[in-house]
Sequence to fold (306 residues):
Amino acid sequence: MNRREFMGGATVFSLMRGGVFPRLSADTVIPLTLVDGLPCTSVMIEGKGPYPFLVATAQTFFNIGGDLARSLNLQPQPGPYKGITVTGDSRFDVFRAGDLTLGDSFRIADVLFLAQRAFDEGPYKGCLRFITEASTAMDFEAGRMTLLRDNPVPPSGAASARIVRASAAVFAKVPAIRVELDGRPLTLIVNTGLGQGIQLNPQAVERLGLWDAYEQGVDAVEDLETGQVQTRTVRAGTLNIAGFPVPDPALRMLRSPQVVNGRLLAGDGELGMDVLRRFQIGFDVDKELVWFTPNAGTQAPAASPG
Fold:
């Protein structure tokens, strides 16, 4: 799930802030399940549902399938809105819902949804954006996401990485961190909505000369909403994340001659669930830190490429 569309000006600001969050009186636990390896939670929209929504920390907007939005009679917003994808312009619809409920009773009011065709099919009917209104902790093995009332206290054995700003303005509110891959420094967005271990943007692949740096790659050509992309998936050596070594991570490299708006590809790439599931992770939005606590299998080899 790595498709994004971008807007400019007030529309971006409104959608990034879309939703009025309640004040937390206590820590609030939201159940998570892994569907196709990605974290998912059930939501209610204006009292209807439940609907499975992806939890993606690289998303800056709430997303919904357009078919579901229309079936719920959500209020379409005046438009059409025009956005910029990495291969050109696009148009899309925006809908407003009175409320969105997570878990038993965590109600977000006045939610703006960006409609995405990707959610009209498949197991997810929409996607939650990265929550900046509260610090959060995710435990994929235990199946929960906790919204923290107070500043989080990392568990024993945790190590933290400072959140840095990715290069594209639209990603200003998502968590990017610095890591090392086989001794090479990278800035990667922490993305629970990505199944791969590491995905690198074309600019980073070219800058670091990585396309032919690894042997036994699996090549493919994919048709995404953003255009046709050539990919190569290989087994890298060691990823160092917050001081923890993760051996043999699957690395997916992108190469596309069609990228005409490459400035919108933020940072060097993304860090996905094939690595993240090996940790309990927490996001301290006040101190701008991501902390990682390794699970028992952290130093086991990652999933096979391909």
Remarks:
- The mean pLDDT is 83.
